[in-house]
Amino acid sequence: MSGVGENQLISIVPDELKFLFELEKQSYCDLKVANKTEDYVAFKVKTTSPKKYFVRPNTGVIQPWDSCIIRVTLQAQREYPPDMQCKDKFLLQSTIVPPHTDVDDLPQDTFTKDSGKTLTECKLKVSYISPSTTQRSSESGAINGDGNGSETISTIQRLKEERDAAVKQTQQLQHELEMVKRRRNQSNSGLSLKLAALVGLIGLIIGFILKLTLASPT
């Protein structure tokens, strides 16, 4: 097992998961996992609180010298943790696999320690950042000229923008779905009206023909 954020096979950026914590709102953090070897490397993400987080992809295979993005989403929470302290942890396991291995082809014991394979692990801590803390850091950084405070503000602002963009995209998709449903209903309604008008017209023609037939001299 190696240190936080890096091992012999992969590197992870950032080395700590930071979430903007607001009640009843989701938040996410992206991890960039890079393969530092000439081999194919498989990885798996585990957490001490699987019900709180949604990880995609949680398992994958990275080609030599390539990288991938793992998105970790903190589900909406109903209450604040004590003192805004988080004890959750993540573990990213990695191991070398045969060339051109696909994630669906990974054996079940790929990440089992007693499988005889070399398995490396990285531990990642989790921290929560509250909007009020962000505001105080902003004021303190402005007064003291603290560069770290400005960097923290920039990170929080980016997290907010990414969260708002995700929410906006979800709302847009829901709106487009509603529009498709309405168009489908309108199309069905228009077809019914056309059919009814056609039946009525045929009825009028038949009635007119019958009227002419009855009115004609025998």
UniProtKB/TrEMBL annotation:
One of its GO terms (biological process) is endoplasmic reticulum-plasma membrane tethering. InterPro entries: Ig-like_fold, MSP_dom, PapD-like_sf, VAP. Gene3D superfamilies: Immunoglobulins. One of its GO terms (cellular component) is plasma membrane. Residues 156-183 form a coiled coil. Keywords: Coiled coil, Membrane, Transmembrane, Transmembrane helix. Residues 9-129 form the MSP domain. The chain crosses the membrane at residues 191-210. Pfam families: Motile_Sperm (PF00635). PANTHER family: VESICLE-ASSOCIATED MEMBRANE PROTEIN-ASSOCIATED PROTEIN (PTHR10809), VESICLE-ASSOCIATED PROTEIN 2-1 (PTHR10809:SF42). Belongs to the VAMP-associated protein (VAP) (TC 9.B.17) family. This is MSP domain-containing protein.
